[in-house]
Design a protein that fits this description.
Blueprint (H helix, E strand, L loop, with lengths): L9 E5 L4 E4 L1 H7 L3 H4 L12 H10 L7 E5 L11 E11 L5 E10 L1 H16 L9 H4 L3
Antiparallel strand pairs: 1-2, 1-5, 3-4, 4-5
Length: about 140
Amino acid sequence: MKWSATAVPIFAADASGAINGWNSKASEVTGLAVEQAMGKPISDLVEEDSAKNMLALALKGSEERGAEIRIRAFGPKRKSSPIDLVVNTCCSRDTMNNVLGVCFIGQDVTGQKTLIENYSRVKEIMPESCGTLPHSFYLFL
């Protein structure tokens, strides 16, 4: 399957941490075009050290499942930064089984996290007496 045909963000980095793969969904989610992403250090794209740590682990042969990373938004999407992704990593290997880099296969969970955060905020500020409101009221929050 071609990366460009996928419905999830996929990107890859080589052993030095330079982006060497970036699909159209990663571009859509982050606002960073494929041409701009290629060759960029992964440290320029992530909010935290999580992706760099995953790269280091992958280079030792350890793959991650369900890890969360925050990636920066670019261009018009910049105001919505950062983007929360849940990713699985897989090692890229040569024919001698040496690890050459890592591939990140993600799911954008930014919307879900925002919804949960907003719900938690509303729940904190609502007075106890509102606990008796009809269930349908909460559907509009």
